[in-house]
Amino acid sequence: MSKTSRPRVYVRVRPLSKTEEKNGDTIAFNVEGKGSQTDTLVCKKDGEPIRTRFDKAFGPQTTQQEMFDHIGKEVVDSLASGYNASVFAYGQTGSGKTYTMEGDLSNKEAHGLTPRLLTSVFARLKTDPNVSELVARMSYVQIYQEKIQDLLNERRQLDIHMDRNGAYIAQGATWTEITGMEHAMRVYHDSSKLRATNATEMNLVSSRSHAIMMIHLQWDEPQLPGLQAQLNLIDLAGSEKLYQSGATGEVMKEAIAINKSLSALGNVVSKLVDAAKYPDRRVHVPYKDSKLTYLLQSSLGGQNLVHFILAMGASSTYQTESLATIEFGKRALQLVLRPVRNPIDYKRLEEMEMMIEKMRNHIKNLEEELKNKPQGGMVPEAAVAPDTNAFLHINTLHQEGEKPIVCPQNEGSALKRALENELILSVQNMGSPSEQDRLKLFCQLCPDLKKTFRELGGLGKLTAEDLQEKVKGTKC
Ligand SMILES: Nc1ncnc2c1ncn2[C@@H]1O[C@H](COP(=O)(O)OP(=O)(O)OP(=O)(O)O)[C@@H](O)[C@H]1O
Ligand SMILES: [Mg+2]
After folding, report:
1. Coarse DSSP helix, strand, coil percentages of the chain, rounded to the nearest 5 percent
2. 466 CA to centre of ligand 2 in angstroms
3. What's the whole-model pTM score?
4. pLDDT for 54-73, tens place per residue?
5. What are the residue ranges spanned by the domains of the chain?
6. Whose CA is nearest to atom 10 of ligand 1?
7. What is the CATH number of domain 8-333?
8. Which residues line ligand 1 (CB under 6 A)?
9. Which of 65, 97, 99, 210 gets mutated to test ligand 1 (max ligand atoms within 8 A of its CB)?
């Protein structure tokens, strides 16, 4: 990946709505280009075409699947390589942002980018044989009238604070651990219902908040424990002219807050472009002018791989607003990114190395101990008085009809026997997280055991009997 980059900027033109058709609206925007090279947006202004090039221009007939095929794969690739990625949907109200990001959750074909990305990220990482110990956590917040609310916790209000890595985050936001794609979809589906929407004259299901979903992923690869990446999916609320949206009362207050934060976003992007153009000047980037830019500072600041999707209607009625969206996109194209691959979580690496070392020593000691122990005895002979020793060595008296107990002599190495005992203890105490960690460590020490755990359906489902059976055939 190059040292400096820029965001990807796409435009998607939605078809005329039924109302727009009924009103006899004319088409002012369309796309131009050949096949996959369709990258030009054409706007007819006073009869003259104005052409603007983006990374890709999606016309009114573009399906949700085509959108995903073009954008989603790259996003998933960058995550799997340990980079953070952010996808923004930007555009005026009713232009198709939520349709593009979320789509219709009740119809699989109409799923937007967010559900498709969730599914695809899990499909990719869960089936990669090099990936193990995947931990995925999801957070979902909205910014409604300049208040940050937790959509995973009944819209509890949150403040922004700086974390220990210097990133601005919503303090105390819920991070739900996600076990797989079905779980992710369930959490997403339930929390989406909490997002603020309202009917306006321009959109019957207008989003009245900016929604920010974050998926944090951490996983191990051979030789590389603690890889991580974060996906940020941002469905912005759309700008609106109050006389067009017919907003009054609370809806008007919402619109004012939305317009103000979007204008702050525009200013931040402009200042970031200035900062990139004039590196010698000190440019103040007003991130703190709105909760939106404040919270998205890390996403906008240049270290993420950023994708902007500009949404707009084809109709000439909203031409002025759509042209403003194009201007925003043109500015976004000039942003300079310096994507940084997430550092490996060295704390985790260190922890694991320390634990592995500890376990190695522990096993070595056990081996030594076993080597020095007399067969079947508990204490070396020299360490106990001769009488006691004789006492300890009295042969068992077998009663008539009783089968003699035969001690297994060379069944596996001493190491394996020690390991077996340890493992059984671990399985019996399976409830506690530290035991889970111990078991994971055993897997690291004996790769064969890992396969065994998988065959048995994961650590959680393991029983002591299963384990005893399996551990006999294990190579350590
Ligand atoms: N590409 C498309 N094809 C068909 N219908 C679309 C398309 N894009 C949007 N729509 C429809 O247009 C309407 C408005 O779309 P949407 O709610 O996504 O707008 P929005 O940009 O999110 O607006 P707001 O900012 O008010 O939330 C919806 O009824 C949606 O189903
Ligand atoms: Mg919306």
Report:
1. 45, 20, 35
2. 52
3. 0.75
4. 999 999 999 999 999 999 99
5. 8-333, 346-382+410-471
6. 96
7. 3.40.850.10
8. 14-15, 17, 91, 93-99, 203, 205-207, 237-238, 311
9. 99
